[in-house]
Design brief:
about 120 residues; Reverse transcriptase
Length: about 120
């Protein structure tokens, strides 16, 4: 049996955008959640149309998948000449994080409903 998601609700999109930390570091597109929140407040229907189109077609724009990798040294390591003394964080585009947050919320609710 094929699974179909219910249509995207405007409230889901608003929650995904407005509950995100506006001070989080942005990805390569340099659009922070603070900027997205102000833009969403000004033109919510534009955001809804874009995300609804992506949601209904299953598309995930390639540009939104780009990230910036930052290598950080782990504190207290005895030898910084080995790779294990570092960790990498990936700064993802916030536009992509919104779409992923909606899917993650729905998947979490679905697994709770199904009891798995």
């Amino acid at each position: 049996r094929q699974w179909e998601w219910p249509s995207l609700q405007a409230s889901e999109l608003e929650k995904a955008i407005m509950t995100s930390n506006p001070k989080k570091a942005p990805g390569p597109d340099r659009l922070s959640f603070g900027i997205l929140q102000r833009a969403y407040a000004a033109v919510p229907m534009l955001f809804y149309r874009v995300y609804n189109a992506l949601f209904s077609t299953g598309a995930h724009p390639e540009a939104w998948k780009e990230c910036i990798g930052i290598v950080l040294p782990k504190m207290g390591k005895p030898d910084y000449t080995v790779g294990k003394a570092y960790r990498i964080i990936a700064l993802l585009n916030c536009l992509s994080k919104v779409l992923e947050k909606i899917f993650a919320t729905r998947l979490s609710a679905t697994t709770c409903t199904l009891g798995t």
